[in-house]
Amino acid sequence: MTTGGELAAADTPRLLHFRVSHYNEKVRWALDFKRWAHRRKALVPGFHIAGLRLKTGQNKVPVLEIDGTRLVGSAHIIEELERRRPEPALLPADEAGRKRALAIQAYFDDEVAPAVRRLFWSTYIADTSACCRMATHGASRPARMTFRALFPLMRPLFRRNMGLDKERLAAARDGLAGILDKLESEIGPKGYLVGDRFGLADLAAAAIMSAIVRPPEFSYPLPQPYPEALAALQASVAGRRGYQWVVETYARHRGPSAEISAS
């Protein structure tokens, strides 16, 4: 897609990702579901911008390096994974099922993901220690120390980039019940959103909702303790069928990692 820097070997894709992100979790889950051996490089939010812009001309993750190209964005990456390795399939075989699965993915990507990310970050942003633990978990000690030292300067940028103003936060809180209503309306008699087996719609919805649900099977558990505000947010919706559906979908279908080594 773009040039600059070394690309992953053709037979070993490499994922550039944030450990905590729900968009990135979508791609990790797709790679793991397809049992596609790959490497991962975890980036630190904020610190990733210069290097990623040099490589890709933009600053968003996930980015998948594969066969001499760089693919950007979870939906685009999953589409290409499905094309290159159609089995096991994430998309239904029938056209109507495919359209519905893609529509559900688009809804969760475009409408739900920004709102639940906003809610998640709002529980951290005022707590410097918790925010630094979350954003740099798994990073080197120098990276963690540098992030913490610079965080007072970066906090306003995070607030702006995440849309953590009062109006949008209030809209996200007010809209959470409707998001769960929509999710629950899509659950079929066998527990899947499209058809009678696990597929893209289930993966996308569960991965995006993991921003606030945080199932035990999520690839990178949050460092403990996490903010009381996040626990309170979870408790406020934990009794909902949609919340439990996310927990159950992870338990049933979030299989082992296909990552072959850290890089």
Structure description:
- The protein has 263 residues and is α/β, with parallel strands linked by helices.
- The chain folds into 2 domains: 14-90, Glutaredoxin (3-Layer(aba) Sandwich), CATH 3.40.30; 95-253, Glutathione S-transferase Yfyf (Class Pi), Chain A, domain 2 (Up-down Bundle).
- Helix content is 56%, strand content 8%.
- It contains 10 helices and 5 strands; from the N terminus they run βαβαββααααααααβ.
- It has helices at residues 22-33, 49-56, 74-84, 95-122, 128-136, 141-162, 166-186, 200-213, 228-237, 241-253, and strands at residues 14-17, 38-42, 63-66, 69-72, 259-262.
- Strands 4-3-1-2-5 form a 5-stranded mixed beta sheet, covered by helices on one side.
- A hairpin with a 2-residue loop joins β3 and β4.
- The protein is globular and about 50 Å long.
- The model is unreliable at 1-10 (pLDDT under 50).
Q: List the helices and strands in order.
A: EHEHEEHHHHHHHHE
Give the CATH topology of the largest domain.
Answer: Glutathione S-transferase Yfyf (Class Pi), Chain A, domain 2
Radius of gyration: 18 Å
In the CATH scheme, the class of the largest domain would be Mainly Alpha
Keywords:
263 residues, Glutathione S-transferase Yfyf (Class Pi), Chain A, domain 2, 10 helices, globular, Glutaredoxin, five-stranded mixed sheet, disordered N terminus, alpha/beta
